[in-house]
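Hi, here's the filled form for the chain we discussed.

Project: internal
Contact: R.S.
Residues: 433
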Amino acid sequence: MKLSLACLTLISLLGCGAPTSRSTEALILDLAARLDRAEVSTETSDIDFGSKAARLFLGEGWSWNEQEPAGTTFVWSSRYSSEVHFFIVDTGSRTVRFRCKPLRRGLDQVEGLSIRLNGSSPRSVPLRQGWHEYELVLPSDSLRQGVNRLVFEYSRRPGLARLRLLTTGDFELSRPRVVMNGSPPKLATTNPAAFPTPGIRRVRPSLILLYVIDTLRADHLTVYNDELNTSPGLARLMADGVVFADAVAQSSWTRPTTASILTGHLPWSHGVETAADALTGELESLAHQLQGSGYRTAGFSANGNIAQAFGFHHGFDHFSLMGEFDAPSTTVQKEALDWLRAEESPHDVFLYLHTIDPHAPYVPTERSFSGSAKGSTNSPVGTVPFMRQLAKSRQEPAADMIQQLLQMYDGEIAWNGAIWLRFTRFASAISHL
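And the returned structure, exactly as it came back:
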C-alpha cells in the first residue's frame, strides 16, 4: 500500500502540467516531523542471532532459533554457507565481531570458516572449540551504500550467537527538509471508494476452499514444468485461475510457513518460529475474518504441526487433526465432506484442508509411481525406516535411488491432485444444494 501511494502521488505530480504562474512563497516540508509516515532504513549495528529481530537480517542457510540453558540465543547454519544482510550509509571500513561455536564431531577437531563480502575473495577465520569471539575487518572498497551481503562458508556447520558491526567513526544526519515553490502536491487517498471499478460486481461465494498440499515443489507441477505430467487436472483448473510465477515459502518448515499463509504475517511477526512456538489467537487470521463475515469455518489437517496444540484452531468453528503425519489426503477429504454434509445449511462455508502427501515417507503402492515408472509394492524404498536410515547415513544416494524416490514423489503429487479435483466437485455440489 505504501508503494501504491508513492506511485499515485508521483502520477499526480507529473499530471499537473506546468503552472501558469509561479508563486514566490516557498513551501517547506519538515520530513523529520513526518518521520512516522516514512519507511526508514537504519544502519545495522548489532544482530542477536536466535532472536526474532535477527530474522530481518538473515538470508539463506539458517535453521530455526534456539537457546542454550544459560540463556544464550543462537541459530545453527543449515547449509555449508549462510548469508547475513546488513545496511550501511557510510562506506568507510567496518570491523565485524561475532561469537561462533563450531559443530563438534570429534575431540579437538577444528573447523574452518571463510567469509565473503559482496562476492569478494574469501577471508579465512580459524575456529576453536566452544563459544569464542572473532574479529574481521571489512575493507571499504568492498562495502556498498545500502544493503551488503556477508556470506559465511563452512567446512562443517557452526552456529552464531551475536554479530556486531563497528564503524571507525561517527556520522550525523542533519534534520532533513524539502523546499519547493508553488502549491503543495496532492496526496493520494487510501479510500477504495475513490477508485470506482465500473462493471465489477461483488460476489459472495457460497464455498471458499483453501487446499494445502504439504511439501509440494513448484517445479514438479505440470503448470510450472510442462515436461512433467504429474498434475494435468490441476493445470487445466489453473488455466482458468491465477497462477503465481514467483511465490516463496516464508520458512523451511511447515508450522511457521502455514502460520504466514493463514495470517499474512512473516514468521518474526506472528511469532511461530521454533518447535516451542504456537499461534496465540490474538493475531487475526483468514479464518477470523471470514468467521466475522458470517461464514462457518472448518479446518482439517493431516500434519501434526498444524494442530490445536499449536494454536491453529483459532478462528475455526470446527478443527480436527487426523493422525500425526500419516493420514492420506483421501481421509482428510472424507472428513471434510462428512462435516459439510452434516451442516444444516452448507452455504457460506470456509474449508481449510492441509494434506500431507507428497511428504516423505512414500508408501510404496502402485499409486506412488507416475508415468512409465515401474516399482515393487514390496520395496522398502520410501518407507519410514528407509528414510530415517537415509538421513542418518548423511550420504548422497545412488543416481538410480534418487530417480526412484523422485518417481514416487511425483506419483504422490499425481494422486493428490487427481482426488483433489474430485473433492472440489463434491464439495461444490453440496454447498449449492
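Let me know if anything looks off before we file it.
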